[in-house]
Amino acid sequence: MSDKKIALITGGAQGIGYACAEALIEEGARIVLADINTEAVEAAAKKLSSDTLAMSCDIGNPEQVLEMFDQIESQTGCVSILVNCAGVALSDDLLNVSLDDFQKVIDINLTGTFVALQRAAQGMVKNNIEGSIVNMSSINAQVAIPSIPAYCASKGGVMQLTKSAALSLAPHGIRVNAVGPGSIDTAMLSGVNADPEAMKKVMSRTPLQRIGTPAEVANVVAFLASEKASYISGETIYIDGGRLAMNYTC
Asked: What is the per-residue pLDDT for 249?
C-alpha cells in the first residue's frame, strides 16, 4: 500500500481489530481506530503510532457512524480501506433470549456493518477510489451454536451482505470480502479458555489442535485489503484451523 491509504477499523481497541491495525500499519496504511470504549481506543491509538486517529463511536448507532465518517473525511481524507470488526455476542437459549438482546446484536453486527460499508463505499465512489472493504463474519455463518442465535443470524447476514455489496460495487472497482474466524484467542473466548472441559470440546472440533491468534486473522484481512488480492471479491475466507472441513468428531 502506498501514499498512506486511510484504513478505518471498527472495534479496533483490542483483539482482532487491534491486530488488524497492526497488520495494516506494516502495509503502509494510516490507521483510524473506532470503538465504543473511548478510553481504550485512545490508548490503543497512542500505542500504535503518533498519526493514528482514535474515534469514539457506537457502531450500533447509525447517526454516530455517519458522523464519524464526516469527521474522518474532514480531518484526514476519504477512507480507502474499511475493516468492519466491531461485534458482540450475547448468550441465551432460543426460548429465553429477549427481543431487546436479539436486536442489539443485529444492530451492531449486521446493521452497523451495513451502515459503515455503505457510507465508506459512497465516499470511495465520490472520490474515484478503488478501495477495499473487509467484513468480520464467523464460522457461525455456516454452522451454529444454540446458545447464540442472534450472533449466528448476524454473521450469516454479514456473509450475504458481503456478496451483495461485492456485486454492487464491482463496477466501481471496489472489492468487498469477509473473514470468518473460528476459535480465536480474544476476550470473547476467555470463558472457554478458563474451562478445561470447554476447551477440550473446542479442540475436538479443531483439526490443527489449537486456537488461533488475532494476528492470524489480521494477516488475512491485510491480504484482502491489499493489491495482492486484486481479483478477489465477494468471498469469505474462514480462519478456523480446519474446523469447517471436519465431517464428524470421534
From this structure: 64
- Own/partner pairs, 26-30, CB within 8 angstroms, 24+ separation: 26/222, 27/1, 27/222, 27/225, 27/226, 28/1, 28/2, 28/4, 29/1, 29/4, 29/5, 29/80, 29/81, 29/225, 30/4, 30/5, 30/6, 30/76
Confidence of residue 1 (pLDDT cuts 50, 70, 90): very low
CATH of 6-245, one of 3.40.50.720, 3.40.50.970, 3.30.565.10, 1.20.120.450: 3.40.50.720
pLDDT at residue number 4:
84
Mean pLDDT, the chain, as a whole number? 94
Residues 6+ apart with CB under 8 A from 152: 138, 140, 141, 144, 145
How many residues in the chain? 250
- Nearest-angstrom CA–CA distance, 173 and 211: 35
Q: What would the grid cell of residue 168 be? A: 454492487
Nearest one of 214, 206, 217 to 178, comparing CA atoms: 217
pLDDT at 76: 94
Rounded to an integer, what distance in angstroms lies between the CA atom of residue 31 and that of residue 49?
9
Active-site entry in 18, 151, 238, 248? 151
Q: Is 151 a catalytic residue?
A: yes
Q: Domain residues of the chain, as ranges?
A: 6-245
